Q: What sequence folds into this?
C-alpha cells in the first residue's frame, strides 16, 4: 500500500475497515478513519463507542483483528508496537499522564531517546537539558528543563507530555480528554498551544466529552457510535447539538444551562459553621435543607473536594462545627455511614470501586451492617441489595457476579452511587458525579439524583462541569482559594455567572 | 536542604557516632586490622547490595540470592575437586551461571506475569536443593571441602592492608553508580519502578529492564560467592542461605524505597557500611551473635517507618507549594479581569 510520493499526500492517516473484538464482543466494526495533515480532528462518541479502542489500535497498544492502517505512507502491521508508533511520529497524551516522578522534565521528554556521549553509552546530560530547554523556549512554555516532575502542576505536566511527543518529531498528537483536570485559564492556554501545533504542521486528534470545546477547536469531527462510524462532519456542519444528536441519536431537551433557582425551605439536615482547615479552606458555613441539592463550584484546587472530605470525616479539620439534625456532630467515616451519610469520591478507579471483586460485594461492602449478623454475611441479602441497586440505577449488564473492573466507566459510577442508594440515606455527597461518563448515562444519573432529592435525601454535589451544576442543583456555593466567595440561591443563574465567580471576576464588572 | 540529603547526612552522622562509641567501648575496634576486616565483611555482601539496589528501585524483590551463593560456590568446588580446569576459566563460568539464573527469574516474572516474590522463592528452593545435590560427597554424606588451590584462594587475599574484595566492591560501586545515573538502562530502571505503566507508554521496554536487574543481582551474587568461599577456604551447600536479609536491609537503610523509583548507589554503600559496623559492634561488645538478626530486623522496620513518615512530609510540602502557586495564578487571573 505504501507509495513513494507520500510526502505530497494531504492524508496523514488512513484507517480502513478496522475491526476489533475483545473475547467475542465486537468493539470496533469496519471503521474507516482518516486524518489530514495539520488539522484538529475531534473524535467523539459515548462511552463504549470505541474511541479508546480505535486509539489503542492506531498506537499499537492493542492489535486489531483486521483492516488496514496507513500512516504517513507506512503500512502499519497488525501487531506493531508502541515504540514503532512513537518512531513513526504518533504521540499520545493520555488521561492518566505517562510521566515519571523522580525524573526531571528533560529526562521525561527524552526517556528512551536520551542523547549519549560517544564511547561508553553514558547520557549526555548537558546536551539533553539544553535540547529540552530549547524546545520549551520554542513554544514559550512556563517550564524549566531541570525541574523534577513532581513539583509541577497538572497543567504543566500536560505541557511536558506535549513536548515529549514533539521531541520525537510527532506528526500526529492524540489527546484523550486533555481538559478534564484543567482550570479554565489553563484550558485557554492549551487551546492556544493546540492551534500553534496545527500551524506548525502537526495533526491533533482531540477526544472530549465537552461539546463546547469540540465546537471551538475542531476542523473536522468523527462521530462513533456502538463501535461503528456514524459520520464525519466538516467544519461548517459542526454544532454541539448536531454532534450530540449523532452520538446518542436523540435531541436534548430545551435550554439546560440556564435556570431559575428556588430556595428550598425546611429544617436544615446538615449545618456547617466556620469550618477551617489551614492551607485548604477557611470559614466555610452553610446549611443543607432536607431534599436540597447543593452545588459546590470552584476551580480545581479551590478547596471544594477538601471541604466535603472533611465533612465526611476522611481528613481532619482545624476549626469549626458541624451539626446533624441540629445536634453537634463530630465527623468520622464510620459514624457518618451509621448516621446516613454517603460519599461518592472524585476518583472512581482509585477510591470508588473494588475492581477485582463482583458487583454484589461492591454494593454489600457499605451495607454489611444490614446484611450481616454476627459477622456472617448473608449472600442472599447481599444479592437482593445488588438487584435493588441494578434496578434503581439501571446498571448494565444486569449481572451481579461481574467484576466491577470489567464494567464501563458509567456503570462503574452507578455501582459506586448504588452502594449508598440501597441504604437508608440522609445526605449524599457526590464529587464529580459524571466525570468521564457518556451523555446518556449522565442524564440517567441526573434524573436519579433529582428523584432522590424529591424523596427527601439531601445532596452535596461537587463539580467542575458548570452546565451540570446549573442544571442539577437547587443552590450553588462558589469557592475560590479555599473561601466562599458567592452563593447563587435565588433568581436566574447561568454557567457564565458561576464561572465568573469561580475565577474571581466580580459581578457587575465588565465581561 | 532537601529531605533526602538530610536523611543521608543523618546516616553519615550515625555512622561516625557509632564508630566513636565502639572505639571508646573497645580499644581493639579502632585498629587497622579490625577496620580492614570490617570493610571486607561489608564488601562481601555489599557487592550483592549494589545489584539489589537496582532490583528494589525497579520495585522488584529477589530473595533467591542466598541460594545463588550456595549453588555457585558448589559449582566452583566441583570444578576444583573434579577437574583440572584453571581458576581463570571456571570462575567466569560460575559467575555467568549467576547471570543466567537472574535472567531466568526475570524471564518468568515478565513472560508469565508471575509475582516476583513467588518466582524468586521458588528459585531459592530449587537452587538450595540443587546445591545439596551437586555437593561433593563422601560415602553419601556431604563432605566439607577444604579449598587449597592458591589461584582460587587469591580472591580472599589482600593487596597491602586492603582485601581484594574491598577494592573490587568500591570499583563496582563506582561502576554501578554510573550505570544507574548516567545510562539509558539506569533511567529505565527508575522509570519502571516509579510508574511501570507510564514507563511502558513512554516506550521503555520494561520487561527487558526487569530481566536486566535480575541478571545484574544474580551476577553480583555469584561473584560474591567466589569471594565468600575463597575467604572461608571452604564451601558448604548452606553457604549464603539467608544472606538476602542483610543485603536487603543495607539497601533499605541506604534510602532505597521498597515501593520503587527512589534510591541510589552512594546510599547503598553507606547502608552497607552501617550494617557492617552494627554487626562488627555486636561482636566487639561481646554480645551474642544470635542478636544480630534481631537487631537487623528491627532496623529494617525503624528505617521503613522513618522513610514513610518523611516522604509523606515531603509530599505535603510539595502539594502546599503547588496550592500557593495556584492561588497566586488565580489571583493573577482575577487581577487581569
A:
Amino acid at each position: 500500500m505504501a507509495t513513494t510520493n507520500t510526502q505530497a499526500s494531504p492524508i496523514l492517516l488512513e484507517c480502513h475497515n478496522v475491526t476489533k473484538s475483545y473475547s467475542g464482543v465486537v468493539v470496533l466494526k469496519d471503521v474507516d478513519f482518516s486524518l489530514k495533515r495539520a488539522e484538529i480532528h475531534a473524535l467523539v462518541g459515548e462511552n463504549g463507542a470505541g474511541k479508546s479502542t480505535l486509539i489503542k489500535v492506531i498506537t499499537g497498544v492493542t492489535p486489531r483483528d483486521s483492516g488496514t492502517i496507513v500512516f504517513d505512507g507506512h503500512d502499519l502491521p497488525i501487531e506493531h508496537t508502541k515504540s514503532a508508533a512513537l518512531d513513526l511520529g504518533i504521540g499520545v497524551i493520555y488521561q492518566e499522564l505517562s510521566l515519571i516522578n523522580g525524573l526531571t522534565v528533560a529526562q521525561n521528554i527524552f526517556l528512551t531517546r536520551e542523547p549519549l556521549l560517544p564511547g561508553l553509552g553514558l547520557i549526555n546530560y548537558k546536551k539533553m537539558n539544553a535540547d529540552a530547554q530549547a524546545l520549551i523556549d520554542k513554544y514559550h512554555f512556563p517550564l524549566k528543563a531541570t525541574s523534577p516532575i513532581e513539583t509541577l502542576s497538572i497543567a504543566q505536566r500536560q505541557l511536558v507530555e506535549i513536548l515529549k511527543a514533539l521531541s520525537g518529531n510527532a506528526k500526529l498528537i492524540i489527546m484523550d480528554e486533555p481538559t478534564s483536570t484543567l482550570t479554565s485559564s489553563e484550558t485557554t492556554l492549551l487551546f492556544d498551544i493546540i492551534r500553534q501545533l496545527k500551524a506548525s504542521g502537526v495533526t491533533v486528534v482531540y477526544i472530549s466529552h465537552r461539546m463546547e470545546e469540540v465546537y471551538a477547536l475542531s476542523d473536522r469531527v468523527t462521530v462513533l457510535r456502538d463501535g461503528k462510524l456514524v459520520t464525519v462532519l466538516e467544519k461548517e456542519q459542526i454544532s454541539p447539538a448536531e454532534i450530540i444528536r449523532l452520538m446518542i441519536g436523540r435531541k436534548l431537551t430545551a435550554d439546560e444551562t440556564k435556570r431559575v433557582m428556588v430556595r428550598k425551605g425546611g429544617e436544615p439536615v446538615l449545618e456547617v459553621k466556620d469550618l477551617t482547615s489551614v492551607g485548604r479552606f477557611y470559614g466555610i458555613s452553610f446549611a443543607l435543607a432536607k431534599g436540597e441539592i447543593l452545588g459546590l463550584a470552584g476551580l480545581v484546587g479551590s478547596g471544594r473536594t477538601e471541604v466535603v472530605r472533611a465533612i465526611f470525616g476522611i481528613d481532619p479539620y482545624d476549626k469549626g462545627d458541624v451539626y446533624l439534625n441540629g445536634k453537634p456532630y463530630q465527623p468520622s467515616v464510620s459514624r457518618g455511614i451509621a448516621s446516613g451519610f454517603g460519599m461518592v469520591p472524585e476518583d472512581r478507579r482509585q477510591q470508588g470501586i473494588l475492581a477485582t471483586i463482583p458487583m454484589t460485594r461492591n454494593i454489600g461492602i457499605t451495607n454489611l451492617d444490614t446484611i450481616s449478623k454476627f459477622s456472617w454475611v448473608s449472600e442472599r441479602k447481599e444479592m437482593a441489595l445488588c438487584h435493588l441497586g441494578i434496578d434503581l440505577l439501571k446498571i448494565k449488564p444486569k449481572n451481579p457476579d461481574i467484576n466491577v473492573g470489567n464494567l464501563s466507566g458509567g456503570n462503574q459510577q452507578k455501582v459506586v452511587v448504588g452502594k449508598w442508594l440501597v441504604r437508608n440515606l440522609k445526605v449524599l455527597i457526590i464529587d464529580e458525579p459524571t466525570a468521564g461518563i457518556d451523555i446518556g448515562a449522565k442524564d440517567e444519573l441526573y434524573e436519579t439524583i433529582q428523584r432522590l432529592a424529591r424523596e427527601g435525601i439531601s445532596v452535596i454535589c461537587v463539580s467542575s462541569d458548570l452546565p451540570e451544576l446549573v442544571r442539577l442543583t437547587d443552590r450553588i456555593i462558589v469557592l475560590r482559594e479555599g473561601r466562599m466567595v458567592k452563593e447563587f440561591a435565588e433568581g436566574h443563574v447561568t454557567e457564565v455567572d458561576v464561572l465568573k465567580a469561580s475565577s474571581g471576576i466580580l459581578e457587575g464588572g465588565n465581561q | 536542604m532537601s529531605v533526602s540529603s538530610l536523611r543521608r547526612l543523618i546516616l553519615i552522622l550515625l555512622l561516625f557516632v557509632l564508630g566513636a562509641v565502639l572505639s571508646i567501648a573497645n580499644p581493639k575496634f579502632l585498629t587497622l586490622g579490625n577496620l580492614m576486616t570490617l570493610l571486607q565483611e561489608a564488601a562481601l555482601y555489599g557487592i550483592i547490595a549494589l545489584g539489589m539496589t537496582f532490583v528494589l528501585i525497579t520495585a522488584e524483590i529477589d530473595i533467591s540470592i542466598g541460594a545463588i551463593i550456595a549453588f555457585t560456590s558448589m559449582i566452583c568446588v566441583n570444578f576444583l575437586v573434579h577437574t583440572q580446569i584453571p581458576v581463570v576459566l571456571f570462575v567466569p563460568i560460575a559467575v555467568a551461571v549467576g547471570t543466567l539464573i537472574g535472567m531466568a527469574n526475570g524471564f518468568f516474572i515478565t513472560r508469565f506475569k508471575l509475582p516476583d516474590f513467588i518466582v524468586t522463592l521458588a528459585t531459592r528452593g530449587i537452587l538450595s536443593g540443587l546445591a545439596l545435590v551437586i555437593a561433593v560427597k563422601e560415602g553419601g554424606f556431604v563432605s566439607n571441602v577444604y579449598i587449597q588451590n592458591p589461584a582460587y584462594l587469591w580472591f580472599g587475599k589482600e593487596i597491602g592492608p586492603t582485601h581484594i574484595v574491598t577494592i573490587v566492591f568500591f570499583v563496582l560501586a563506582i561502576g554501578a553508580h554510573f550505570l544507574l545515573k548516567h545510562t539509558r538502562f539506569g533511567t529505565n530502571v527508575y522509570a519502571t519502578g516509579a510508574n511501570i505503566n507510564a514507563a511502558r507508554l513512554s516506550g521503555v521496554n520494561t520487561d527487558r529492564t526487569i530481566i536486566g536487574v535480575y541478571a545484574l543481582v544474580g551476577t553480583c551474587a555469584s561473584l560474591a560467592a567466589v569471594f565468600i568461599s575463597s575467604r572461608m577456604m571452604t564451601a558448604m551447600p548452606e553457604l549464603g542461605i539467608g544472606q538476602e536479609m542483610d543485603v536487603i536491609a543495607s539497601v533499605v537503610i541506604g534510602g532505597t524505597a521498597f515501593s520503587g523509583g527512589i534510591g541510589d548507589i552512594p546510599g547503598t554503600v553507606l547502608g552497607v557500611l552501617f550494617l557492617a559496623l552494627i554487626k562488627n559492634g555486636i561482636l566487639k561488645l561481646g554480645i551474642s551473635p544470635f542478636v544480630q538478626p534481631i537487631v537487623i530486623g528491627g532496623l529494617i522496620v525503624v528505617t521503613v517507618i522513618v522513610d514513610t513518615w518523611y516522604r509523606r512530609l515531603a509530599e505535603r510540602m510539595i502539594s502546599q507549594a503547588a496550592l500557593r502557586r495556584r492561588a497566586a495564578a488565580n489571583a493573577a487571573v482575577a487581577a487581569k479581569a
The beta strands of chain B are 137-138, 141-142, 145-146, 158-159, 162-163, 234-235. The domain at 3-290 of chain B is CATH 1.10.3470 (ABC transporter involved in vitamin B12 uptake, BtuC). Chain B has one domain: 3-290.
